[in-house]
């Protein structure tokens, strides 16, 4: 059975209002054409759907059953149309972003002002978390996309785009007892109290792999969960730590932190990665933000 959608649409209104004259005006047609179309629908369905009376239309048992199904389908279609129309309208909406602290500082903060200027009615929600947790939230469909720092675990659902690369540098507070230290050999690093990420964080995996390649074990004395925590401990004059250069640079320029060079060795660059879930539909607002990130 292959019945035109318009037949169901017109039947929906006839069954809802039970008045051919009223529905004809509502649908911008005339009553004879509407009546003819209802007759054709009954022919194709192979049963009587309605009875015309002096008081209007009365649905048969088959007509009532059909209307119950058509009403659900038609209202769902109208809701979908409204939803898609809203998503394609930049006069309202929301972009939900999952981010790590580094990605927020390096990438997202630079885009926010420009995006808000162009689309002032679009709300933005940012959840700051670990790379692993942010990827889990994306998989659950709770955010539109994720921007995290490497390393990123492979997942067939995720499309990855490198947005930016950055370097980490070793620093200590100018008030610490290590402030006169200008350079150090990598094998001597752990003779100092190193502050670093706890074992279950991606940044810890990065450091563990790098130091393993140097024949060393990554073993920080103080384990933390974020760069702000590292900064807080450093600024109290405790230990040494690796920080992204963009985070450390303002403190170095003000004389609050000192950089310690690692002799004859360059740390590999890390990456800020945009992650999109290919199985998830993105609103036009989210796509606009992603476009700005990639430009």
UniProtKB/TrEMBL annotation:
Name used for this protein in its record: LysR family transcriptional regulator
Keywords: DNA-binding, Transcription, Transcription regulation
DNA-binding keyword on record: yes
Family, per entry: Belongs to the LysR transcriptional regulatory family.
GO MF term set: DNA binding; DNA-binding transcription factor activity
One Pfam family this sequence matches: HTH_1
Record domain HTH lysR-type: where: 14-60
InterPro entries, per database record: HTH-type_LysR_regulators, LysR_HTH_N, LysR_subst-bd, WH-like_DNA-bd_sf, WH_DNA-bd_sf
Gene Ontology, cellular component aspect: cytosol
Transmembrane feature ranges: none
Superkingdom, taxonomy of origin: Bacteria
